[in-house]
Each structure stands twice: as structure tokens, then as C-alpha cells.
Amino acid sequence: QTRSYSSIQLGASPRGSIALMKASQAYAFIHGRNYVIPDDVKFLAPYVLAHRLILKMEAKFEGITGEQVIAKIVARTTVPTQRKMNL
């Protein structure tokens, strides 16, 4: 969603997604898990992605930071869930 957010001129690249995935895996491992949970991704997203954004000048003049933008995007993003299928 970083590519369509109003305050962002240029969003995170696919390498940003890869970096977030690897950081989330490391974070989970440090916390004794061999799997990533959504909270890992939510926590790390501002740290991993904020510096990868180019904000619009208007946003910079208003004092908006990349961390704030990522935090807003994460807050409005729903966590995917798996539904049971009747087979």
C-alpha cells in the first residue's frame, strides 16, 4: 500500500518486502519461535520500511515522517485469516 498512499511520492520496492520478511523471521527466532506472527510484521514495519520511502514535499513540510506513514498504513491493514472450507 505504500505505492498508493497520498503522502508518498515513491513507495517501498519489492526489496523492502523481502527485508521486512527476513527481519520478521529473525525477530520471531529471537523470541523463540520458528514462525512469524502478524504482530512481528506490524512491530518491525516502521523500522524496516520508513527509510525506503520518498515522501511528497507537502508531507515533509507538514512534518510527517516515514515512520508515521508506515504506522498509519499498518494500522489500517487487516490481517489475512484462513477460513475453513466445507469439503
Automatic annotation (TrEMBL):
Protein name (database record): AAA family ATPase
A Pfam family hit: AAA_lid_2
ChlI/MoxR AAA lid domain segment(s): 2-73
Domain of life: Bacteria
